[in-house]
Amino acid sequence: MPDLSPVYHIVAQLLPFECLRAVFMQQAMVGLILLAPMAAAMGVQVVNFRMAFFSDAISHSAFAGVALGLIFSINPHWTMPLFGLLVGLGIMAVQRKSTLSSDTIIGVFFSAVIAFGLAVVSRDRSVARDMQRFLYGDILTISNNDILWLIALFIAFMVFQALSYNRLLYIGLNSSLAKAHSINVATYQYIFAALLALIVMFSVWAVGVFLVTAMLIVPAAAARNFARSAGAMFWWALLVSVTSAIAGLVISAQDWANTATGATIILVACLWFMISVFTSFIRRDSVR
Question: What sections of the protein cross the membrane (predicted)?
Answer without folding.
Answer: 24-44, 51-72, 106-122, 147-169, 190-221, 233-251, 263-282
